[in-house]
TrEMBL record:
Biased amino acid composition, Basic residues: 89-100
Domain of life: Eukaryota
Organismal lineage: Eukaryota, Metazoa, Chordata, Craniata, Vertebrata
Disordered: annotated span: 89-109
Coiled coil: none
Name of the featured protein: FAD/NAD(P)-binding domain-containing protein
SUPFAM superfamilies, alphabetized: FAD/NAD(P)-binding domain (SSF51905)
Gene Ontology molecular functions: oxidoreductase activity
Pfam families: Pyr_redox_2
Domain FAD/NAD(P)-binding: 258-409
Organism: Cirrhinus molitorella
InterPro entries xrefs: FAD/NAD-bd_sf, FAD/NAD-binding_dom
Length: 511
């Protein structure tokens, strides 16, 4: 699960690249606006957030506490955690004194800042509940814990907030510790994680055992949901949440059409909201965002909807069932007993789908991957290359030891930034622990991996009620169920919610 935001403000002077942009634009939201609206617009919102996921929760927490300092200094962000050998390899740093780390945000001029009045903001979510899709996905895919560790959470003011919550609630037993060592010798798997793949690297470690378990442990899913709800309660964020679905975002322009005065947001209820700024925090959660392969669109036969599905549908399974009064627990039917299943895609969700299918009695599963099967603990493969502890060459690009993230934020080209993001992520990958659960089925022959392989054609047979699929390696597959774990794509040029905005203000988009 990574979420993106598109920020639409009245000047269109900024574009958010990722969830961190919520922090970057917060100060600008607090500055006095130069636009004086008529008395009839006195109830206009300063900010409207679309979506009630974790990124929206972080931003709403910021907006509800405008006077609270955003961040401490970066010097102790990884306090007690050793990311590499203490000795520097490069001689050019040998005789240089280490400079004290400056704060991420300059607090020297804190007193000079103008006071920030309370902001009038609302959040619109289709299900009217914070992080409901996350909770639904956890349940649907039987996900035991998050992929990210306890330093990654939704509280923008306290980096140890999740750790403090664990200790206060005495719920240390809901933390999943990362393994000290992981050995997987398998012809199918390729480690794309230098922390696990290079012997000379020190494993992430701390001096204190309890700290170690807290810092680099993975929080259980129910623990995470309870942490979200506690944050909602502390900041009274249920009071600003509206249950509705946004149909359109319409920019209302000045008389000369040069600027946006405000945005009119049309809800499915027929109600209209007006806001000076709109932030889309929907993430890849809508069915129209699903990344559908071209061979699916080329299928000419009619086929049962349940025989070919995308995993994005599972995100909404329990939310929609709750609305209809159905059960909100247990696992949704991924397949039927005795069926042959094909799963297309190489990310962590594909591994979850395969596990669910095997548990529900699939007689055989074929796993089709466009590339090799990558194993990574986190979404990014090489932690040290991002933080910048050493010089090295990666994919033919020399990394000079400067922090990769620093290079990213100094880069002004959106196209180059996108390239850097893709280089850091290196495509979808499966965690070692998720893959280890699948190994017995691989060894027994119940799970067959087809790497460097793509589907070229799929046909539905009415008589046998089965799929007949052709693979690029010349093989044929027959089965009853196909799951697409091909992810979702965020494309502002294709998003129906942004069609009015893009018509009025066409912009260049890097893809």
């Amino acid at each position: 699960m990574s979420l993106r935001e598109v920020r639409l403000d009245k000047h269109f002077s900024h574009q958010s690249q990722d969830s961190g942009s919520s922090l970057a634009c917060f100060e600008s939201l607090c500055q006095p606006t130069a636009l004086h609206l008529e008395k009839t617009l006195a109830k206009m919102l300063d900010v409207l957030i679309i979506g009630g996921g974790p990124h929206a929760l972080t931003l709403a927490t910021l907006l509800s506490n405008p006077e609270q300092p955003l961040c401490q200094s970066s010097a102790d962000i990884l306090q007690g955690i050793q990311l590499s050998k203490s000795k520097a390899k490069s001689v050019r740093y040998k005789n240089k004194k280490r400079q004290p780390t400056k704060p991420v945000f300059d607090t020297g001029n804190e007193a000079k800042r103008l006071p920030c009045p309370p902001l009038h903001f609302k959040i619109v979510d289709s299900y009217g509940k914070w992080t409901s899709l996350w909770e639904s996905q956890f349940t649907a895919l039987n996900i035991p814990h998050l992929r990210s560790h306890t330093l990654v959470h939704t509280d923008p003011f306290n980096k140890k907030a999740l750790q403090d919550f664990v200790l206060e609630q005495n719920r240390q037993d809901e933390l999943y510790c990362l393994p000290e060592k992981m050995y997987i010798q398998d012809e199918n798997a390729f480690f794309n994680d230098n922390r696990l793949g290079k012997k000379e690297k020190k494993l992430l470690s701390t001096t204190n055992g309890l700290q170690k378990n807290l810092y680099f442990s993975l929080p259980g899913t129910q623990l995470s949901i309870d942490f979200f709800q506690e944050q909602v309660r502390k900041n009274d964020l249920d009071s600003v949440l509206i249950r509705a679905t946004v149909d359109r975002i319409i920019p209302v322009l000045t008389e000369d059409d040069s600027k946006v005065k405000f945005f009119k947001v049309a809800l499915h209820t027929g109600e209209n909201l007006e806001a000076k700024r709109v932030i889309m925090a929907t993430g890849p959660s809508r069915a129209q965002m699903a990344n559908i392969p071209c061979w699916v669109r080329a299928i000419q036969e009619s086929y049962p909807e349940e025989s070919l599905q995308h995993t994005v549908q599972l995100m909404h399974y329990f939310c929609t069932h709750e609305e209809m009064g159905g059960p909100s627990s247990g696992s949704p039917p991924v397949c039927q007993m005795g069926q042959r299943v094909m799963v297309v895609g190489g990310g962590l969700t594909s591994a979850h789908i395969i596990s669910a299918a095997l548990k529900q009695g699939a007689c055989h599963v074929t796993w089709v991957l466009r590339k090799h099967l990558q194993l990574k603990q986190f979404d990014v493969g090489d932690i040290e290359s991002l933080i910048g502890r050493y010089s090295h060459v990666e994919h033919g690009i020399k990394m000079d030891g400067l922090a990769y993230l620093k290079q990213f934020y100094n880069e002004r080209s959106l196209h180059k930034r996108l390239v850097m993001i893709k280089q850091a992520r290196k495509g979808g990958a499966v965690t070692p622990e998720a893959y280890a659960q699948l190994q017995p089925f691989i060894q027994s022959g119940q799970l067959l991996i087809r790497a460097h392989c793509q589907v070229t054609e799929a046909k539905w047979c009415y008589r046998s009620q089965r799929w007949r699929v052709s693979l690029c390696i010349g093989e044929q597959w027959d089965g009853e169920k196909i799951w697409l774990a091909t992810g979702c794509k965020l494309d502002v040029t294709q998003d129906p919610l942004l069609s009015d905005v893009m018509t009025k203000f066409p912009i260049q988009v890097s893809k």
